[in-house]
Amino acid sequence: MGSSRGSRGFGASPLASQGGHPVTEPSRRDVLKWSAAGGIALSLSRLPVAMAAAFDDTQTLPGRARPNPAAAGHGRIDAVAKVTGAKLYVSDFRAADMEGWPATTAHALLVRAADATHVLTGIDLGALDGDLKPTVVVTGQDLAQAGLKGPPFYAGDLLCPVGTTPLYLGQPAALLLFERFDAFDRARVLLREKSPLVFGAETGALARPNYAAMRFTRVAGPTPDAPDVYSPLMEGWISPGVFEAGGRPVWQPLPIAEGGQYKKGATYGEAIRAGIAAADPAALVLDRSFRTQSIDPMFLEPECGLAWYDPKARALRLALGVQSPLEAAEALGDMFGAAKEGVRPKSIDTRFAHLGGGFGGRDHTPFPLYVALAAIFLPNRPIRLAHDRFQQFQGGIKRHAFDIRSKVAFERATGRIRAFAADHVLDGGGLANYSASVAVVSATSAIGAYDVPKVDVTTVAEHTRGVTAGSMRGYGVVQTTVALETLMDEAAAALGIDPVTLRRRNLLKTGGRSMAGNPWTVSVRTPELLDKMEAHALWRGRAAAKAAAPAGTLVGTGLALCVKDYGTGADCALGRVELEPDGRVRIVCDAVEMGNGIGTAMANRVAQYLGRVADEVSVARIDAFGALGLVTSGDPYTITQAAQDKAAKNPRWVPAISSATSASIGAHVGTQAAGEAARILLRFGLWPAALAMWGIRKNDPRRFLWEEAYWQDGMLIMSGLPPLAQPDLAAKAHAMGALTGTMAHAFSRWAWAQAAFPLDGFNWAADLDALAVRRGKGPFKVLDRSFVAFPPASYNRIGTAFVSGCGTLVRVEIDRASGAVRVARGYSVLECGHALAPEVVRGQAHGGFAMGLGQALLENLPPFEDGPGNGRWNLGDYVVARGSDLPVHALEVEILPPVAPNEPPKGMAEVVMIPVVPAILNAIADATGKRFSALPVTPDDVRRVL
Asked: What CATH number did the domain enclosing 841 receive?
């Protein structure tokens, strides 16, 4: 992202951004500006604080002057606003709620194509007669005439032009703008029943290159300590590419330019497959196919946005709810960058509210582009574009459907895996979105938690006419884990080995190499997870439960184990921590609150350094870090080491500025900058104040024992010295001119960037790459780093280095007559390092269990014309898990304690839903003696095998 535009500045003027020179921090109303294509001043912020008090109370967590259960160590910092139904989400807002906007809200309606095999010949709005006619109809021709194009990430026309075949089902073809809600609402219902789009000649689906085609092959050395013979880490990532008839490559995949030729890797891969096929009698070979379905994220709040274009000022203002605020603003800049002078705004102010759920479905979504277009084509009128559930099914991002074929050879005597090969085909739908990335993550996770000396996995992410698939909770790993963990159970039965024992014999140990050829760089706790499941009453009592089943009921118990990466290999965070004279703590961060509890996690991580849970946490803020003056250039995933070394000479340069809140990075990445900022604030703010209050002089060695002090009940405790109250320390720090505010940026590429900064006579090193500080009530001032060490660019090809683990046990009861499967009991045990907010972790595990059950037994979106792209899907057809489907009072969640008091937090929001799916399938197999190879498993499926 951004490589085509070169250097981008953060907190810099349009001129200064080109050279990376810092400027003073903008006011909250001016917000962040940087240079974008076409000279548009882009601004991002949280929704304005200068509005009605009710908004200010809810958008700043926990809400000013409201109870904060997190302050006592219980509950979430955002809980009160959410459970009381406060105005919080972007869908709650109308123009009248926005300071300085006209009061009346207009409404927009996207018309999407339910046909992707015929030419679009026109738009017939005859059904909308009289006062139902839209004020403005925007078509692809209008966009072309205005010079408006989507960013490269969203390849294809934003609105399908008349005279062409839609690229995919659900592609927008027209934008209807209504000044009155009544007309909009009635038109919406009428056009749902009869589409206004007119189609002509049949062309068949449009052909487009696939989104990715990759191969990952590893051959281990003869001993565990020997170097690999071949691996992606050694040779780079390889692809056969996609070629035209003339042999010209039209697509080359992901990130590594140096090393790695396809022929060499394919030679090793084919040898692995031949060895599996020719396995001797001493080996058990399983060759199985599996299919996982497309499903919807089903977040609570469908996508929504509010915008107003003031043509006199040529200012576009938006309120959005997305997982990736910086990307959304950059996409808007891209879209307008080449627009004609009369259309292109001079400034774009993009503001962000909380999300009613994300699960990846709002990460890099094109929806904000249509919100902006609605405002541009109906100037002077604030306008709202909001999906209802029909529209969200038709246009929202989906989980990739997978076809998987796996071949695995086990040693009969030991149960050890000799070799593994798999082929994955992903249905990416009509827009690329994150299909290539999902393909890579699923492939590199194909052997799960296990140590396999020979692995060969191919993956192809296909373009189809289906609804777009992209980022979603589980991110490819849930699909491959289902196939792998059901295979492990089948192998255990065939070998006569207990399923836990078989898994334990194959576990990847600490220091062992993943299929990419690198070790995980975090704690490896899968043996403990297996021990916990093996000792649990659900597992030990499985035979007794079968025997006690009533007549007509089958009972089965199943388990599964999963490890899931967190992070992307180019993650970053912005954090700002401020200490008031009375001890109050304020935190500002760029992470997004979307049901993930990031506000609570942020507050708790900072509290360990500042002795108090934050009084205010402001999330989704990109406007509060101008003092850092950050600039970036290139793509952090593809940058060369030479380019990185050259760019790093600029003390304001970082590989990336702000990340989407996704990839389970909240606890690990999202809190990093604020956590390190708070640590510095303790060392150079509260600690000097404590020394002064204790009367400790310069020659006293206790001056350097700050890490031995600790907080208890709001008091700073140091052996042999009187306890000091946090408010007194804060007041002293302000009075003596010590640090009272810190602002930081952190970057991770499977390791944290590190830098040193001049602070009070020290060259202070931290896991940060940018820092600004303030003293008293003064302004923030950026500090030049004296050195910086960014993780090597070669880390881009090591695949996953950070993983968390989860094991799940389930017991199912199956009615013989109907085939209905009921999950009667469940147990999930997980490890996530330091759990910053255990209540949130537990809640994520419960929610993940529900999502996993839904994918295993209930949810399904057919592809193509019978699927959601036809615009007729809603919750009457799409079945999601309800309370009655879940073991609400018989679900146990256990969180392993960290391996050490200082173990950092891990990301775990995805891993907790993944093993639920194969555990249920393994339990069904235990009950019925039959294995199912496609999701979901329905009562009809079960009844047929019974």
From this structure: 3.30.365.10
8 Å CB contact between 77 and 70? yes
Domain total for the chain? 3
Please tell me the number of Cα atoms within 13 Å of 825 on its side-chain side: 16
CA pair distance 873, 860, nearest whole angstrom = 11
Rounded-to-integer distance, Cα 852 and Cα 480, Å:
14
Is there a contact between 747 and 574 (Cβ–Cβ < 8 Å)? Answer: no
Both 583 and 557 in a single domain?
Answer: no
478: burial class by Cβ within 10 Å (0-12, 13-18, 19+)?
buried
Residue 199 lies in a domain: yes
d(CA 334, CA 341): 15
| Residues paired with 348 in a beta bridge | 42, 316
Q: Are residue 288 and residue 327 in the same domain, yes or no?
A: no
The rounded distance, in Å, linking the Cα atoms of 573 and 905 is: 15
- Is the domain of 770 the same as that of 894? no
Strand partners, 794: none
State how beta strands 770-775 and 781-783 pair.
antiparallel
Q: For residues 835 and 705, state if they share a domain.
A: no
Beta-bridge mates of residue 123 = 197
Q: CA-CA-CA-CA torsion for 357, 362, 367, 368, nearest 10 degrees?
A: 90
Reduced to 3 DSSP states, what percent helix, strand and coil does the chain have, rounded to the nearest 5?
A: 30, 25, 45
Q: How far apart are CA 762 and CA 753, in angstroms?
A: 19
Q: Are strands 212-219 and 242-243 parallel, antiparallel or unpaired?
A: unpaired
Q: Note whether 277 and 363 are same-domain residues.
A: no
Question: Is-contact 36 30, C-beta < 8 A?
Answer: no
196 within a domain of the structure (yes/no):
yes
The CA distances from residue 608 to 92, 681, 713, 836, in Å, are 35, 12, 12, 10
- The Cα 455–Cα 851 span in angstroms is 30
pTM of the prediction? Answer: 0.92
Backbone φ and ψ for 841, nearest 5 degrees, come out as -60, -45
Residue 248 included in any domain: yes
Three-class secondary structure of residue 112 per DSSP: strand
Give the confidence band of 15 by pLDDT, cuts at 50, 70, 90: very low
Within its chain, how far is the Cα of 250 from the centroid? 29
Amino acid in position 45:
S
Contacts of 881 (CB under 8 A, 6+ apart): 850, 851, 853, 854, 857, 858
Can you give the three-state secondary structure of 356-419, one letter per residue?
CCCCCCCCCCCHHHHHHHHHHHCCCCCEEEECCHHHHHHHCCECCEEEEEEEEEEECCCCCEEE
Question: Given 386, 410, 426, which residue is the final one in a domain?
Answer: 386
- Give the 3-state secondary structure of 695-710: CCCCCCHHHHCHHHCE
Please identify which residue in the block is written with the tokens 């891993």: 911
324 assigned to some structural domain? yes
Q: How high is the mean pLDDT of the chain?
A: 90
Chain segment 331-381, per-residue pLDDT in tens: 999 999 989 988 999 999 988 888 888 888 899 999 999 999 999 999 999
Q: Clarify whether residues 758 and 806 are in a common domain.
A: no
* pLDDT per residue as tens digits for the range 79-91: 877 887 777 889 9
CA–CA separation, 627 and 466 (whole Å): 45
Answer whether residue 904 shows pLDDT above 70: yes
In the prediction, which pLDDT does 63 show?
Answer: 65
Nearest-angstrom CA–CA distance, 556 and 813: 7
Q: Within a 10 A sphere around the Cβ of 665, how many other Cβ atoms? A: 26
Instruction: Take residue 341 and report the two structure tokens written for it.
Output: 């002078």
- Distance, in Å, from the CA atom of 868 to the CA atom of 296, rounded to the nearest integer, reads 9
Do 666 and 764 belong together in one domain?
yes
Regarding whether 602 and 510 lie in a shared domain, the answer is no
Collapsing DSSP states into helix, strand and coil, what is residue 932?
Answer: coil
> For residue 528, which of 157, 33, 236, 898 has the smallest C-alpha distance?
898
Which letter does DSSP use for residue 39 in this model? G
32 CB burial (10 A radius; 0-12, 13-18, 19+)? buried
Per the structure, the complete domain to which residue 775 belongs is given by: 571-622+658-748+754-789
What the block records as the tokens of 486 is 């059901």
